[in-house]
Specification:
mainly alpha; elongated; 1040 residues; GMP Synthetase, Chain A, domain 3; 31 helices; coiled coil; transmembrane
C-alpha cells in the first residue's frame, strides 16, 4: 500500500490514459449488441436443429428474416385502398435488391393464400417479406422499408420476431441511458446524506466511472475479437453492479478510513490500517461477487453467459479500489469529509443495535418477525414464468401495435405457426412416404390446441378426403352401386317387356278371334260354293235346253275364278307372314336363353368374390369391423342374389315365348288348310268354263242358272268379307305384337348396358382392392395415394412447398389457437414431441432427424435450457461462494447459515416480484430470465453484506459471542444499510427503463436487498450466531 501511496499520481494518470484510449478505440457496444447480442439457442435443441435442416435442404439463407407488412384500416378496406396496397407491393418488388428483400409473398400473386393473408373482416391485408440481414443492421433495412411501404389512406406498419427483438434492443438502450443518469444522481444524494460531505461522494463516482469505461471497452474488444457473450442486459448489469458494489466498497473503505482517523492515526497509517481490515473485506467480497458472476460462464445459454462480463468489471473495480481510492485518501486527507467540522467520529447504527439486541435476547420473537414476513410470500409463490417478448415493450412500439392488429384479425397462431421439419436419408416423394406424411399430419392435428396442420398432403390445412381408404371405399361402393343400378335397369327392361306382352295379350286374343271368324267365313264360303254347285247344275240343265246368254255366263264365271285366285293369294301371303313371325319368336327365345346363361355366369363370378373377401379379412386385422368394407361386401353379395332373381325371371319369360311360338304353329297349320281348300275351289272353275264353252248354244237356260249363281254369289262375297275383316284384325293384333317385340328389344338392350356397367364397376373395384392389398402402409395409416395424384400439376406445387427439391426434407406448419408466446403454447410443444414419437415409431421415418422451429418452439427450448443452466449455475455459484466464506471466516458452520439466509431472501423477494407483477398487475408470469439473473445478482451482492458483518464479527473473537456480534452489528449497521440503499437505488434506476424484464429484475433485487439489510441479516443471522456459540468457528476453533 505504501507503494500505491507513493506513486499515486502516476497510477491515476495511467488510469485516465488507459480509459481514454480504450474508450476511443473500442467498438460501439450498441452495434455489437445488434450484431452479436441476440438470443440464440445452442446446438442440439429442436429449434436450432430445424434451422440447420432448412439451411441444408432449402434456399433459406442464414441471416434472413421474415418481416410481416400490415396494411390496416379501422373499417373494411375499399377497392381504392386495395389498389393502393397492390401498387405498394409492386413497388417493393421492383426495388427488391435496393431494399434487401429476397422475396415477397402476397395473395395478389397466389390467390390460394387469400384466407391466410386477408382478414375475414376485410380490415387487414398482410404481405410477407423475406429480408436479407446478413452484414446489415436491421435498423437500416427497417428505415428503408418504412419509406417503401407507406401507402396512401392506409395504416401501414411492420412486425415479426426480428423487429420485436430490435425494439427490445432500442428499449434497452433507452433504459440504459436513463439508468446511468438516475444512478449517478441517486448515488450523489445518498453519499452526501451518508457522509454529510460534498467531497466524499465524488471519490466513488470517479473510481467507478473509470472502472466502467475501462470494463465496457475491454468487454467490447472481447466480444468483437473473441465472441465473448453479449446481450441487451450486459451494459445495464455493468452499470448497476459496478456503481452499486463500487459505491458500497467505497463507503466501507471511507467509513473505515474515517474510523481510523477518529482514532488519531496519521493519514498513511490510517490508509494502511483501512486496507488491512476493510480492504481485506472488500477483496474477499469482490472475489465472491466475481466468482458469482464468473460461474455464469458454465451456463450453455449465451444470454446467461453475457452477465459474466460483470466479473470482468469486478476485476477492474478491485484494481481501482486498490489504486484510485488510496490516491484520494492520501491527497485529500480529512478534506474528503468536508465540510464536516470538529473531530471526525464514526457513529454506530442504533437500528441494527436494537435489532441485534432483540435477536440475542428474544430469538423466538426475532425469528417470528422473519417468519411472518417471509412465509406468506413463500406460500403464495408458484413460479409462473412468461416468455412473451411483447411484455418487454409497451404498446408505443410499432412492432407491438402491428402484432396486436394481426392477432385480432387473423389469430397470432396463423402468422407465427410452429413448423416441424423431418429430415430423411432418402427422398420422400413417393406414395409410401406421402402416406406416412399424411399419417403424421393426422396425428398432429389431434393434438390439443392445434387448429390446423399444413403439409405435403394438406397444402391448405384441410384433409384431402380422397386419400383415405374409407372415402375410396365409398368410391368403390359407388361403382358397385352403379353396377347394381345396371341390374336394376335389366330388371326394369324385363319388366317393361313383360308388361308390354301383358298389355298386348287382349290384342293377341282378338287376333285369334279374328282367325276364328276367318274360319267361319271360309265355311260360309264352302256352303256358298255348294249352293253355287247346285245352281250350276241347274245352269247345266238350262244350257242343255238352250244356249241363250252362254257367252255372258262364261264371262261371269271367269271373273269368279279370278276372285277365287285373288283370295288364294291373300291367304298365302298371310300364311307367309305368320311363318316369319314364328321364326322371329323362335330367334327371340334362343337369344333370351343366351342372356339367361350370361347372367348365371356373372352371378357365379360374384359369388367367387366371397373367397377374396375372406382372404382380405384374414390378412388385415380389424377389417371385419370396418363399416365401409362391410358395405362393399354386402353390396356385392346382394348383387349376386339380384342376378339370380333376374335369371329366374328370364327363364319364366322364355317359357311364355315358347307358348307364343306354339300358338303361331297352330295358326300356321289352320291357314295351310284354308289355303288348300281355296286352291281346290279356284281350280274347279276351269271345268265350269270348259263346260260353258259346250253350252254356249243353250245359254237361255244357262241365263236362268246364272241368275241363281248370281244370287248365291253374295254369300261368297260375305264370306270373303269376313275373311278380310279377320285379316285386318289379325294384322292389328300382330302389329301390336311387333311393337311389343320392339319394346322387348329395347329392354334387352338396356339389360346388356347394365351388365356392361356391372362388369366395368366390378373390374375397377377388384383392381383397386388388389392395389390396396399390396400397399404396406395402408393398414397403419388408412391412406392410399392414387397414381393420378402424383402426376397432378397443382399438387406438385404443394409438394414443392412442403418437400425440398431433393425430397429428403418435409415440413409441417402447425397453426395453434393460442398466443405463440404463451406458456400454454409451450406446453403444446411437449404434446407435439410426444405425438411425433408415437406417430413415427415403427415406420421408415422412425430414425428421421426432427426439428421444431418458430417462436413457440424457441421459447420452449429456452425454458428447458434455462432450467438446466439455472440448476448448474446455482451449484457452481453456491460452491464458489461457500469456498470464499470458508477461507475468509475460517469456518464450515457460518457459510451454511449465511447461504441459507441468502436463499431465504431470494425466494421471498422473487415471491414479492410475482405478487406485484402477476397477482397485482395481471401479467401472465415473471419474465423467464428474471429468476436466473435475480438469483445470481442477489446472491453475489447479498454475500457482500454477510462478509461485511461476519468479517467484522471475526475481529471481536476475544469477546463473548453475544458481545462480539452485537458490536459488529452496531459498527457495520450504518455501512450495510447505506450500501444496501445505494445498491437498491442503482437497480431501482432500471424501473423507468420500460423493459419488463429489467423492471422485474430491479424489483427482485431491490426487495431482496432491503429484505436482507433490514430483516434477515439483522434478525436471523444473530440468532444463529448466538445459538451456535463457539461452534460458529468449527472446525477451526483452535486457530480463532
Amino acid at each position: 500500500m505504501k507503494f500505491v501511496v507513493r506513486f499515486r499520481w502516476l497510477l491515476l494518470a495511467f488510469w485516465i490514459v488507459v480509459a481514454a484510449v480504450l474508450t476511443w478505440k473500442a467498438p460501439n457496444m450498441e452495434n455489437l449488441v445488434r450484431e452479436k447480442g441476440q438470443i440464440t439457442v445452442p446446438d442440439g435443441y429442436p429449434s436450432r436443429l430445424a434451422s440447420e435442416i432448412k439451411q441444408h435442404h432449402t434456399s433459406e439463407k442464414e441471416g434472413s428474416e421474415s418481416f410481416i407488412v400490415v396494411f390496416h384500416d379501422n373499417k373494411k378496406l375499399d377497392s381504392n385502398q386495395i389498389e393502393n396496397i397492390h401498387k405498394t407491393i409492386q413497388k417493393i418488388k421492383s426495388k427488391e435488391k435496393e431494399l434487401s428483400v429476397n422475396s415477397v409473398t402476397t395473395h395478389f400473386d397466389q390467390e390460394e393464400l387469400k384466407n391466410q393473408l386477408v382478414s375475414k373482416d376485410g380490415k387487414t391485408i398482410l404481405a410477407i417479406l423475406d429480408v436479407e440481414l446478413k452484414n446489415r443492421e436491421i435498423s437500416s433495412v427497417r428505415d428503408k422499408l418504412d419509406n417503401a411501404i407507406a401507402t396512401p389512406h392506409v395504416q401501414t406498419m411492420m412486425t415479426g420476431n426480428g423487429l420485436i427483438n430490435e425494439d427490445v434492443v432500442i428499449s434497452s438502450q433507452k433504459g440504459l441511458k436513463k439508468t446511468e443518469l438516475i444512478t449517478v444522481a441517486f448515488i450523489l444524494i445518498v453519499l452526501i446524506l451518508v457522509f454529510r460531505s460534498v467531497v466524499a461522494p465524488i471519490i466513488p463516482l470517479i473510481t467507478v466511472s473509470l472502472t466502467y469505461l475501462v470494463s465496457q471497452s475491454v468487454v467490447a474488444f472481447l466480444v468483437d475479437k473473441l465472441n465473448f457473450p453479449l446481450s441487451n442486459f450486459t451494459q445495464i448489469f455493468l452499470v448497476a453492479v459496478l456503481f452499486g458494489i463500487g459505491t458500497d466498497y467505497c463507503i466501507l473503505l471511507l467509513s473505515r478510513f474515517k474510523e481510523e482517523l477518529s482514532k488519531g492515526n496519521e493519514v498513511v497509517p490510517a490508509i494502511i490500517a483501512t486496507y488491512k481490515t476493510a480492504g481485506k473485506t472488500v477483496l474477499f467480497s469482490g472475489i465472491a461477487v466475481m466468482i458469482g458472476f464468473a460461474s455464469i460462464g458454465f451456463a450453455s445459454f449465451k444470454l446467461y453467459q453475457s452477465a459474466s462480463a460483470v466479473a470482468v468489471g469486478v476485476v477492474f473495480l478491485l484494481l481501482a479500489l486498490l489504486t484510485v481510492v488510496p490516491f484520494f485518501m492520501a491527497t485529500l486527507r480529512k478534506v474528503i469529509f468536508w465540510p464536516l467540522k470538529g473531530n471526525i467520529s464514526h457513529s454506530e447504527s442504533k437500528l441494527w443495535g436494537w435489532a441485534g439486541n432483540l435477536a440475542i435476547t428474544r430469538p423466538i420473537i426475532a425469528l417470528g418477525i422473519v417468519a411472518v414476513i417471509t412465509i406468506p410470500l413463500l406460500i403464495s409463490y408458484n413460479g409462473k414464468l412468461s416468455f412473451n417478448s411483447l411484455d418487454e415493450l409497451g404498446n408505443d412500439y410499432e412492432s407491438v401495435k402491428a402484432f396486436n392488429i394481426v392477432s385480432n384479425g387473423f389469430g397470432s397462431g396463423e402468422i407465427m405457426p410452429v413448423t416441424v421439419v423431418l429430415e430423411n436419408d432418402e427422398s420422400m416423394k413417393s406414395k409410401e412416404y406421402l402416406g406416412l406424411i399424411e399419417n403424421v399430419s393426422g396425428d398432429l392435428s389431434k393434438v390439443d390446441h392445434i387448429e390446423k396442420v399444413r403439409s405435403a398432403t394438406r397444402p391448405v390445412g384441410d384433409v384431402m378426403k380422397e386419400l383415405y381408404v374409407r372415402n375410396q371405399a365409398g368410391t368403390i361402393s359407388e361403382g358397385i352401386g352403379k353396377g347394381n343400378k345396371g341390374i336394376g335397369d335389366i330388371k326394369a327392361g324385363l319388366n317393361t317387356a313383360a308388361k308390354s306382352l301383358s298389355k298386348n295379350e287382349p290384342k293377341l286374343k282378338s287376333a285369334t278371334a279374328g282367325i276364328g271368324d276367318l274360319q267361319t267365313g271360309t265355311k260360309s264360303l264352302q256352303s256358298g260354293i255348294t249352293d253355287l254347285q247346285t245352281a250350276l247344275e241347274q245352269i247345266e240343265k238350262g244350257i242343255r235346253s238352250g244356249s241363250t246368254g252362254a257367252g255372258e255366263l262364261k264371262t261371269g264365271i271367269m271373273e269368279a275364278r279370278k276372285q277365287a285366285f285373288a283370295l288364294k293369294a291373300g291367304v298365302n301371303e298371310l300364311l307367309t307372314n305368320y311363318q316369319k313371325m314364328q321364326q322371329g319368336v323362335q330367334q327371340l327365345e334362343s337369344n333370351y336363353k343366351q342372356i339367361t346363361n350370361g347372367i348365371t355366369s356373372i352371378q357365379a363370378s360374384l359369388m367367387n368374390l366371397n373367397s377374396h373377401f375372406t382372404q382380405l379379412e384374414s390378412k388385415y386385422n380389424g377389417l371385419k369391423e370396418d363399416g365401409d368394407y362391410n358395405a362393399i361386401k354386402q353390396t356385392v353379395q346382394g348383387t349376386a342374389q339380384s342376378l339370380g332373381v333376374s335369371a329366374g325371371a328370364l327363364t319364366e319369360l322364355d317359357k311364355n315365348l315358347s307358348a307364343v311360338n306354339n300358338g303361331f304353329q297352330q295358326a300356321n297349320t289352320g291357314l295351310s288348310s284354308i289355303l288348300s281348300g281355296i286352291s281346290q275351289f279356284a281350280n274347279s272353275f276351269n271345268s265350269i268354263i270348259t263346260g260353258l264353252d259346250q253350252l254356249e248354244k243353250g245359254m237361255s237356260k244357262a241365263a236362268d242358272g246364272q241368275s241363281q249363281v248370281i244370287q248365291k254369289l253374295p254369300d261368297v262375297s260375305n264370306g270373303l268379307g269376313k275373311i278380310a275383316d279377320g285379316q285386318q284384325q289379325l294384322q292389328k293384333g300382330f302389329g301390336s305384337v311387333g311393337e311389343q317385340l320392339s319394346n322387348l328389344t329395347n329392354g334387352l338392350n338396356q339389360s346388356t348396358d347394365g351388365l356392361g356397367k356391372i362388369q366395368s364397376g366390378l373390374d375397377d373395384a377388384s383392381d383397386y382392392l388388389n392395389k390396396m392389398s399390396n400397399d404396406s402402409n395402408l393398414q397403419k395409416s388408412g391412406v392410399y395415394i392414387p397414381d393420378e395424384l402424383l402426376t397432378n400439376v397443382d399438387y406438385q406445387k404443394a409438394l414443392d412447398t412442403y418437400i425440398s427439391k431433393d425430397g429428403k426434407m418435409t415440413s409441417f406448419d402447425l397453426v395453434l389457437n393460442q398466443n405463440p408466446y404463451s406458456n400454454q403454447a409451450m406446453q403444446t410443444i411437449d404434446r407435439i414431441n410426444q405425438a411425433l414419437k408415437t406417430s413415427l415409431k415403427g415406420t421408415k421415418l422412425e430414425n428421421a432427424h426432427i426439428g421444431i422451429s418458430g417462436v413457440t418452439s424457441m421459447n420452449h427450448d429456452l425454458n428447458k435450457m434455462s432450467n438446466s443452466d439455472y440448476s448448474r449455475t446455482v451449484m457452481f455459484m453456491l460452491a464458489g461462494i461457500g469456498i470464499i466464506l470458508i477461507i475468509l471466516l475460517r469456518s464450515l458452520i457460518m457459510p451454511i447459515y449465511l447461504i441459507i439466509s441468502l436463499l431465504l431472501t431470494y425466494y421471498s423477494s422473487i415471491a414479492m416480484t410475482e405478487l406485484v407483477f402477476v397477482h397485482m398487475l395481471g401479467y401472465s408470469g415473471i419474465s423467464w430470465a428474471v429468476p436466473f439473473f435475480g438469483f445470481v445478482i442477489l446472491m453475489a451482492l447479498g454475500i457482500d453484506y454477510s462478509i461485511f458483518l461476519m468479517d467484522r464479527f471475526s475481529e471481536y473473537r476475544q469477546l463473548q459471542v453475544k458481545e462480539g456480534i452485537l458490536m459488529a452489528m452496531k459498527n457495520m449497521g450504518t455501512v450495510i444499510i447505506s450500501a444496501a440503499i445505494i445498491l437498491a437505488g442503482t437497480f431501482a434506476a432500471m424501473l423507468p427503463s420500460g423493459v419488463m424484464s429489467l423492471l422485474q429484475i430491479a424489483t427482485l433485487v431491490l426487495s431482496g436487498l432491503l429484505f436482507y439489510a433490514f430483516i434477515v441479516l439483522p434478525l436471523f443471522v444473530p440468532v444463529m450466531v448466538k445459538a451456535l456459540g463457539k461452534t460458529n468457528w468449527w472446525p477451526f476453533m483452535g486457530n480463532k
